[in-house]
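Example 3.2
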Amino acid sequence: MADFSHYGSDGRARMVDVSPKAVTARSARAGGFVRMGRETIRSIAGNLLPKGNVFEASRLAGIMAAKNTSSLIPLCHPLMLHYIDVRISVDEEEGGVRIESEVKMEGRTGAEMEALTAVAVAALTMYDMCKAVDKEMVIENVRLLEKRGGRSDYSHHA
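Structure, written as tokens:
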């Protein structure tokens, strides 16, 4: 089993020293799902909720969250992100809304946490905007879909 990089030999949490690493192009994609009732889906699609356009507010919240990940996750490095996108789509067959993020940058460490944070905060924003009409919503399956650059690449297999 690989060692946890965020722990020193003394067992204390630490920020990983990435200074010896080369600056390379890096990207990450993450996804998640907000399960909700059919009426809630219809209300979102018709822009009928009292707080306004759920998709746009959630998308912008996800972008802002990605930019602020190092302020939220104690041992994350602050990164200069070059591109952030959050895409949201209704999946009526599955009974909810899919959220996917993509982050691109050049640096010494990857952007996985930024991509995951974008999805999580977009989902939480969606929950906040819809909770008045649907208390049964469930945020689920927030996960890394892909990472490129650095020492190794990763792609989620469904």
